[in-house]
Amino acid sequence: MELDGARPGGDQTTRQRVARSILVEGPSTAAALAQRLSLTPAAVRRHLDQLVDEGAVEAREPRSVASRGRGRPAKVFALTELGREGFDQQYDDLAVQALRFLRETGGDDAVREFAHRRVAFIQERFGSVAEQHPELSPAEVLARVLTDEGYAAAVRDVPVGEQLCQQHCPVSHVAHEFPQLCEAETEAIAEVLGSHVQRLATIAHGDGVCTTCIPTVTSSTSTASSTSTTASTTTKEKERVTS
Hints:
Helix content: 55-70%
Radius of gyration: 23 Å
Number of strands: 6
Oligomer: single chain
Strand content: 5-15%
Structural class: alpha+beta
Distance between the termini: 82 Å
């Protein structure tokens, strides 16, 4: 097992690896980080303690402990807003100033238009990625598109359908003041998937991960839609006959 932090001058590099692993994989336990980075649990805890002291990482209670056995559940460590600022957000202040100017000169409509243009890549790239990777589900295609743009996205199955989890948001600091960015992104996701989606959490609002629920379309919903379409068609046919 390699101990990068044991080498002279290696502590900072290893600490950055720990922070980036949390960024990419989401809130993690010390044991999970140790396994992922091939470090000893003791070494990981030392770096986590330092990151916590710096305010870059915070310890949280796990959301669900139902599946655990006896003993106290292990804490998970998540990046704070300060911790995220070290990853690809050096232009955040400039972006916020630009959007403030846009709002002052063009109003909220101008900000919304900008937000929709910014996420146009979702619709532009979705079809080509789906064609290149027919083995992926629509949600997985979307995750691939978002990951290519720096969102570190993944899909997981849940009882009601699927969840799209974005471990990183390149514009989270800006979206905190301008939620139109998140709203436009959610609308684009719903449009390419062709179904209603629900945003459950966002990094911009202080959550560890941007989470979007993609519910499974039930047969009853499909039947109701089909029945509605048939009824509409029948009505139109009757109107043509009457006329």
